[in-house]
C-alpha cells in the first residue's frame, strides 16, 4: 500500500538538523513503507543523511535556509510561512505533497501556521493540542487541550472529547476509550457551567460514539491508568501538564540526591538500579514525545524542542500511526454520528485559538 510521505521540519528543535534527521532514520526502521520530505538547509541535511543510508534513499530535500526561532511571535511566523522550514513543511501538507508534518520548533508559531494553512475540519470550531502521558496502567493517557485554547465552551469540550477518543483508539487499540472531563471534583454539581453542559451533551451522545463516558475526573487521577482520555481547556490543561512534568523531574532529582548522600546510599543505588532505570525510562519525556494538533484538515505533530533522537523518532512514530489509521476520517465519522443538533446547547466563543502552548 502506498502511504503519503511525512514532511519533517529538519531545522526545528534545540539541536536542529542532526537530531531531526537521526530521529526520522530511527522511525523509518519501524515504518519502512513511509517516505520523507526533509525541509531545511540542503547542505546540512545532505551531510546528516550520510550517516543514515536507510533514510537517504527514502527522502527528498526541500531547501529552506530560513528558520523560525523560539522567540518569534505567531504573527511574525505567519508572515514568513512561505520561506521558513516550518512553514514550508506545513504547506507541503496543504499542497498534498505530504500527508503530515512534524516539527520541533516554536509551538505557538506552529499552531498559527497550521491553522491558517490547513483550516479546521468541518464540524470542528477549534483545533486542540493533544499529547500522551505515562500512567500506571497498560496504556498512556491522551490529554487535551494542552494550551491551544485558553477559554473553551461546552461545544469545544465535546469536540475535544470526540477527537481525543478517536486518537486514543489509534494509540491504545481500545475500541471504547474511557473519556472523562477534568474538574475540581467528580460530583455532578461541581465545576463551571461549561463543564456541566459538556457532561450532559456527552452523556446523551456517548451511545452513538465509540467511547465510555462517565463524567469527571480530578488532576490527581490523570496518571493512575483508570482513564484513557482527559479533556479540558487549554489553560487548565497546560498548567496540569507542567505540574505533572515538574513532579516527575522533582522525583528524579530527589532520588539522585538521596542516592548520592552517603556511601550506604550509593550502595543502595547499585542494588536498586534495575528499578530506578525502569522508573527513569517510564518518566523520560522522550518516550512519550509527539503532541498532535487535532481538528485540522491534515496532520501536524509537535516534537518537544529538547527531544533527543529517540524522542523525535517517537514523534514520527505517532505521525505514522495517525496516517496509517486515518484518524482524520475517524473524527469526521464520529462527528457525523453525534450530529450538529447535539452540540447546540451553547454557541461557540468568538475568540480564535490563542496558540499559547509552551
Summarize the structure.
With 358 residues, this protein is an alpha/beta fold.
What's the helix and strand layout?
Layout: E1 6-9, H1 17-30, E2 36-40, H2 42-49, H3 53-56, E3 59-63, H4 74-79, H5 85-95, E4 100-103, H6 107-118, E5 128-133, E6 141-144, H7 154-172, E7 178-182, H8 193-205, E8 212-217, E9 229-231, H9 234-259, H10 263-283, E10 291-294, E11 299-302, H11 309-324, H12 327-338
Parallel strand pairs: 1-2, 1-4, 2-3, 4-11, 6-9, 7-8, 7-9
Antiparallel strand pairs: 5-6, 5-10, 10-11
Helix pairs in contact: 1-2, 1-11, 5-6, 7-8, 7-12, 9-10
**What summary fits the major beta sheet?**
11 strands, mixed
> In whole angstroms, how far apart are the ends?
37 Å
Broad structural category: alpha/beta
User: Reading side by side through the largest sheet, how are the strands ordered?
Assistant: 3-2-1-4-11-10-5-6-9-7-8
User: Helix count?
Assistant: 12
Helix content: 40-55%
The poorly predicted ranges are: 346-354
What are the secondary-structure elements, in order, as H or E? Answer: EHEHHEHHEHEEHEHEEHHEEHH
Mean pLDDT: 84
**C-alpha Rg (nearest Å):** 21 Å
Please indicate the percent range of residues in DSSP E strands (runs of 2 or more). 5-15%
Number of strands: 11
Overall, the morphology is globular
What features would you describe in this structure?
This protein is an alpha/beta fold and 358 residues long. The protein has twelve helices and eleven strands. It is globular and about 60 Å long. 49% of the residues are buried.
Amino acid at each position: 500500500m502506498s502511504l503519503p510521505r511525512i514532511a519533517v521540519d529538519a531545522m526545528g528543535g534545540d539541536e536542529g538538523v542532526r537530531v531531526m534527521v537521526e530521529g526520522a532514520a530511527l522511525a523509518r526502521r519501524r515504518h519502512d513503507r513511509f517516505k520523507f520530505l526533509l525541509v531545511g538547509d540542503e547542505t546540512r541535511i545532505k551531510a546528516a543523511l550520510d550517516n543514515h543510508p536507510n533514510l537517504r534513499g527514502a527522502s527528498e530535500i526541500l531547501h529552506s535556509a530560513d528558520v523560525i526561532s523560539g522567540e518569534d511571535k505567531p504573527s511574525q511566523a505567519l508572515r514568513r510561512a512561505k520561506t521558513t522550514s516550518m512553514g514550508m513543511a506545513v504547506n507541503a501538507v496543504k499542497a498534498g505533497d505530504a500527508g503530515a508534518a512534524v516539527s520541533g520548533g516554536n509551538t505557538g508559531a506552529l499552531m498559527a501556521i497550521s491553522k491558517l494553512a490547513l483550516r479546521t475540519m468541518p464540524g470542528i470550531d477549534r483545533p486542540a493540542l493533544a499529547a500522551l502521558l505515562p500512567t500506571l496502567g497498560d496504556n498512556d493517557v491522551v490529554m487535551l487541550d494542552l494550551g491551544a485554547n485558553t477559554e473553551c465552551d461546552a461545544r469545544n469540550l465535546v469536540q475535544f472529547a470526540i477527537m481525543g477518543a478517536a486518537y486514543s483508539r489509534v494509540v491504545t487499540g481500545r475500541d471504547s476509550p474511557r473519556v472523562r472531563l477534568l474538574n475540581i471534583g467528580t460530583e455532578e454539581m461541581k465545576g463551571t457551567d461549561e463543564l456541566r453542559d459538556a457532561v450532559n451533551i456527552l452523556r446523551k451522545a456517548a451511545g452513538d460514539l465509540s467511547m465510555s463516558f462517565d463524567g469527571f475526573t480530578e488532576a490527581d487521577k490523570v496518571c493512575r491508568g483508570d482513564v484513557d482520555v482527559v479533556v479540558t481547556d487549554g489553560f487548565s490543561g497546560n498548567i496540569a501538564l507542567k505540574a505533572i512534568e515538574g513532579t516527575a523531574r522533582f522525583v528524579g532529582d530527589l532520588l539522585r540526591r538521596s542516592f548520592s548522600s552517603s556511601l550506604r546510599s550509593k550502595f543502595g543505588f547499585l542494588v536498586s538500579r534495575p528499578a530506578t532505570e525502569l522508573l527513569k525510562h517510564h518518566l523520560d519525556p522522550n518516550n512519550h514525545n509527539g503532541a498532535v494538533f487535532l481538528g485540522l484538515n491534515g496532520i501536524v505533530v509537535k516534537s518537544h524542542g529538547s527531544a533527543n533522537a529517540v524522542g523525535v523518532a517517537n514523534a514520527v512514530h505517532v505521525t505514522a500511526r495517525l496516517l496509517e489509521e486515518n484518524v482524520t476520517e475517524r473524527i469526521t465519522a464520529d462527528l457525523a454520528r453525534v450530529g450538529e443538533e447535539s452540540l447546540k446547547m451553547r454557541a461557540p466563543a468568538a475568540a480564535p485559538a490563542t496558540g499559547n502552548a509552551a
